[in-house]
Design brief:
Length: 292
């Protein structure tokens, strides 16, 4: 298994899960296009496209920092073309960029509704569309959505239908594109965490420092993504994967290494179907759910 010489186009790669996926690939000597909005330091959120690029280079990869707004068609296409010019092609597209607001219908203003759907559903469709012509020429092309299984339980819709619609829009791209481009050998898969992941979204927008302690590190998602990218793209497509269950199937047995605090119970994530059980030895707390 190796991603040496492969080129990844990763949205939202300046921090969190996107950066962790980029760094895991960089350890093999991969090329990474860091496609994100944050060019200047944010007053609360860590990381910029330049700091991420520096980390990727230190990890052993090659980086191309690109200021990209996935809502802007011209911005996305320009970034894809710059990536191809720099590295000669694109092997892997990671749709990680996402916007969140957990509010009910009456509390969700249309500006925020539009933001979530433009970034999550439309941005994923657009970025995938821009990368596909180049992926068709790749040896083992993969597209990965950081989006949940399509579980139509009302419990996932009742409290925040706008956000759920936006995230499920990403997942519907997996279903449709996996079938549409099956003949081209491009794999489209979705990856979702069973637990909260220690990201800026958890720390600043949802659960604070206490919530962070009940999370797993982004490395669990990076390790799962790495295993996906090393699968045969013609044989492994259209899957909705939960991080620990997938990694268990790949031979991983030590899940304690991903816990931010070994003494705290793990906080469950949204959108994990009740039928999906954690691997042997993994215990998930009950109670309120917090998205990654």
């Amino acid at each position: 298994m190796s991603l040496q010489g492969k080129t990844l186009f990763v949205t939202g790669a300046s921090r969190g899960i996107g950066l962790a996926i980029a760094l895991r690939a960089a350890r093999d000597g991969a090329n990474v296009a860091v496609a994100a909005k944050t060019a200047e330091p944010h007053k609360h959120l860590p990381g910029t496209i330049y700091s991420a690029a520096e980390e990727i280079e230190k990890a052993g990869g090659k980086a191309l920092p690109l200021t990209v707004d996935v809502r802007d068609e011209a911005s996305v296409y320009a970034a894809v073309e710059q990536t191809v010019q720099r590295f000669g092609g694109i092997d892997i597209c990671v749709n990680n960029a996402s916007a969140i607001q957990l509010t009910g219908t009456l509390q969700t203003d249309m500006k925020r509704y539009d933001l979530m759907n433009q970034v999550n559903a439309r941005g994923t469709f657009l970025t995938s569309k821009a990368c596909i012509p180049h992926l068709k020429r790749a040896a083992n092309p993969h597209v990965l959505m950081l989006s949940p299984p399509l579980d139509m339980s009302p419990r996932w819709f009742g409290g925040h239908v706008a956000y759920t619609m936006a995230k499920f829009g990403m997942s519907m791209c997996v279903v449709g594109m996996a079938e549409e481009f099956r003949g081209d050998g491009i794999a489209f898969n979705a990856l979702w965490p069973r637990t909260g992941i220690a990201t800026a979204a958890i720390q600043f927008a949802l659960a604070g420092e206490e919530g962070m302690r009940r999370c797993r590190s982004p490395e669990i998602m990076a390790d799962a993504a790495y295993a996906i990218f090393n699968k045969n793209s013609r044989e492994f497509s259209g899957n909705f994967l939960i991080d620990d269950t997938f990694l268990y199937g790949e031979g991983e047995r030590d899940f304690d290494k991903y816990k931010m605090d070994p003494n705290e119970p793990l906080m469950p994530d949204f959108f994990v179907p009740e039928s999906s059980k954690p691997p042997p030895g993994v215990t998930i707390a009950t109670g309120s759910l917090t998205p990654a």
